[in-house]
Amino acid sequence: MICLGVETSCDETALALVEDGAVLGERLASQEGLHALFGGVVPELASREHLRKGAALYTSLMNSTGIDPSRVGCVAVARGPGLLGSLLVGMNLAKGLALGLGVPLVGVNHLHAHLMAAGLERGLPFPVIGLLISGGHTHLYLIRSPFEFELLGRTLDDAAGEALDKAAKMVNLPYPGGKFIDRLGRGVTPDDTLFPRPYTSNPGLDFSFSGLKTSVARYVADHPHLKLPVLPEGELPHVPGLGLFCASINSAVADTLRIKTRRAIAAHPEARALVVAGGVAANSMIRTVLAGLCAEHGLEAIFPSLSLCTDNAAMIAHLGCLLAGAGYRHGPELDAIPRGRPVPFDYARAAV
Ligand code: KG4
Ligand code: ZN
Prior knowledge:
The chain has helices at 32-36, 43-65, 84-101, 110-116, 160-170, 178-185, 210-222, 242-267, 284-297, 306-309, 314-325; strands at 2-7, 12-19, 22-30, 72-80, 105-109, 128-133, 138-145, 148-154, 273-277, 300-302, 328-329, 348-349. It has 352 residues and is an alpha/beta fold. The mean pLDDT is 96. Zinc ion binds at residues 110, 114, 134, 278, 311.
């Protein structure tokens, strides 16, 4: 079955066509440049950009792939969690397309889609431990199938990406700063005494990165020369000590993720692999540290390629395809779920 996926949960407008695990085509319009001017995503501007871009991306996707719309078997849409206004725009587009094409509509949990994205590149040996690390979420799951996610732990405050982005902002690196922390810290030996591994002395699987933020703020106050001129353009100037600062923050985040993930692996010896997903899974140090953890435990480490780590519609279409293929459907009353609320598994089940 060909599934058309729609993703508008944050600041990327994306559409993709996926047929049984193969991406037939995709279109993505990023708003990163627009929001960078404000140092963070401005929700109302994000909604308006989705509205401006969505329908045109559909036309461009269909024209570029040459696929006749009558071959589309279902429309999948990211229903949350995300920015409410942005989700509503994508959901209206998806409902319109499903009605127009006369095919079923499937709402997809954006977080689950991130974790299943690797399935577009290889088979997943369930059960797997899933670590979702993005700008808005840090979740650990035991995943028994594409439809069975057990939440083992989550962040109580900032997400891993948020911690990196806020640290980057403190030294005036461009938004979103996670990739700059990654890039500037690469090849520099971290000083693991500079920053804490927050919330790791308790035995649980939840995360809390706010302690790291406080410690980074204190360090920057004591080392003001680390701050770049506000919103530098083009090449970043060389600042002595900035590489060490970035490598050490990266190491603190990577190590915190390693400690909690190791506990999840120990608690679930039935797991056969670790799947790491979300924008922060693009981070080179985090990939190395988690691959090392898996090697220690004889577990496969699965990281989707970089274009599947950040927000995209192929992952929505892929999980949509699996759900629709198993008979899961939503009606036209499908609602959007904003960040902070659990996404219900509230499908109607059609015979397949
Ligand atoms: O999954 P995503 O594209 O969007 C959502 O939050 O849903 O993740 C965005 C996050 C941002 O915090 C961004 O700074 C971070 O992913 N990120 C990175 C890297 N690339 C993106 N963080 C660390 N290293 C990277 N290379
Ligand atoms: Zn995401």
